[in-house]
Amino acid sequence: MQRFIAIRFGQGLIALIAVTIIVFGLSRLTGDPTTTILGLDATAEDYERLRIRLGLDKPLVVQYGVYIGNVLQGDLGNSIKYPELGAGGAVINRLPNTLKLAGASLLLATLIGVPLGVLSSVRRDTPFDSSAKIFALLGQSVPNFWLGLMMMWIFAVKLGWLPPAGTGGFKNFIMPTITLGSFQIAAITRLVRSSMLETLDSEYVKLARIKGVSESKVIWKHCLRNASLTPLTYFGVIAAITFTGSLTTEVVFNWPGTGLLAFQAVLSRDFELIQALVLVFSGMFVLSSFVVDVLYAYLDPRIRYAQG
Fold first, then answer.
1. pTM of this prediction?
2. For 110, what's the count of Cα atoms within 13 Å in the CB-facing half-sphere?
3. How far apart are CA 291 and CA 190, in angstroms?
């Protein structure tokens, strides 16, 4: 088991290093940030002095080496847009809002997706099953930004039931949570349904029914427990996507999280802030996948024996 964990940890570390290289290079392709800071009225000398101060006059390899060295010391760099906080401070300042929104959407997806998937599999080929499959298809097909805008137009503009944007009380969470969690609800529903269908046809389930075990116990204890391995594997991906993929939802609802911060950083060509955000996003994705891999290995020893 220790060998399996070590291999997974090493793979995650390599993935993080690769991400930093790719993002560092791509962020330089967006243009020169000195034009955003100084404007068009600055002289050539002003641009040169600023480039030297920001370290942009050095070769890219040197710039990357300096960046990685600072990251290892806990310094994620300065921020052009938020100089008083720095890149790391800006991310930390916005991260709690994203975690709250992502956590609420994951909770909603679990509370709706798991029971819906189970009931859909139990009532296979019924109108309820057909409705659940259509619901899941729409959830994975409708773009988040369109769903958010439609909800805002109906419930905020037309009906006036909910606030259109921003943070605040419980009502501010409703539309962003549903918008962000719609895809996850659909994904969990389809995964649980397919896993349950396979489990319901297994021999040990038939044996449990022959022995007189109640149908509810067979479904919710025996079947769901054994059918949870596949959804658990994908749940790590869902969690990572939810935490890191909230950009469109946060922009639509002006939610002050890391997604909106990333959008603002790209517009202002804030290289070091972009790199800090991607590093944090990648770290969350790798950590989520690592935790799920370890849990899956504990639940199914064949995985660690085959790959460890």
1. 0.73
2. 15
3. 23
Integer angstrom CA distances of residue 66 from 23, 70, 299: 15, 6, 42
Residue by residue, DSSP assigns 119-185 as HHHHTTTSHHHHHHHHHHHHHHHS-HHHHHHHHIIIIIIIS--S-SSS--SHHHHHHHHHHHHHHHH
**CA-wise closest residue to 54 among 75, 25, 32:** 32
Q: Using one digit for the tens of pLDDT, what is the confidence trace for 255-294?
A: 888 888 888 888 877 777 887 888 888 787 788 777 777 7
Split at pLDDT 50, 70, 90, the class of 172 is confident
Contact 296, 4 (CB under 8 A): no
Q: Is 99 helix (H, G, I), strand (E, B) or coil?
A: helix
DSSP state of 300: -
- Nearest residue to 174 via CA among 113, 255, 236, 110: 255
- Hey, what are 234's tokens? 């994908």
Burial class (CB in 10 A: 0-12, 13-18, 19+), 295: middle
Alpha-carbon span 266 to 71, nearest angstrom: 20
- Say how far apart CA 255 and CA 172 lie, in whole Å: 9
